[in-house]
User: Fold this.
Amino acid sequence: MPSASKVKPTHKAVKSYYAALATYADQSVGHEGALRSAFQNLLADNGRKVGWTLIPELSLDANGCQIRPDGTFRDEFTIERGYWEAKDTYADLEAEIKKKIKRGYRLTNTIFEDTREARLYQDGKLDMVANLRDPKQLCDLLNAFFSHTEPAHEDFNKAVDEFKQRSGWNRRLANTLLKRSGTQPPASTTALAAQVSGCRVRDCQLGVVGQPWACYAASRGAYPR
Assistant:
C-alpha cells in the first residue's frame, strides 16, 4: 500500500477545491449537493495517492440498521479505512453529528464537515476541529485522516508485508501443485494475501506465518492436511 504523502496548500487538488468553492460563490450557490462535490473531489484525489478508493453513498450495517455515509474509503483489500459525511452550511454541525452518532455512524476515522468547519473523529473520539477556510488547517485535517491506521489494520498490513517478503520457493512449489490439482493460482502475492487473510491459518499445518502459498494450496486440496 502506498505511504501517505503530506498534503500541502500548494497542491493542485487543494487549489482546485478552493477554486470550485469560489465559482459556486460567484453563482450564489450554497446548497449541500454542490458544495459537497468540491470536497468529494478533494478527498478522492488524495485517497488515490494512498491506495484508497472513495465510494459514495455505500450502504453499511450499523447495529442492524442501514447507514449511508456520503463517502466510504476502502483500500485494495476492500477494508474500510475511513468515512466522510457532509452537512449543509446552514445546519448545526454539532447537532447533526450527534444525530449520526445516535444512528450508529462509525467514528474510527470519520470526517464530518459543512464546508466551513470539519470535525475529525478517530478511534471513537474527537481528534481535530479544522477551519476549512484556512488552507493549512484543511491540509492538517487531510494528513491526519489519510495517515490513520487502526490497530487491526496495522496487523493486517504487517502480515501482507511478511507474505511478500517470505513467499520464495514456497510460491513456486504451491503454484505447481495447484496447477496439477486443476486450481488456478492467485495472480500475485497481494491477491493471495487477500484470500488467505480470512482463513484459519493455524488450522493448516503448512499454513504457518511465512508460508501463505502453502496455506492456500492446502485449502484448495493441492496439499494434504
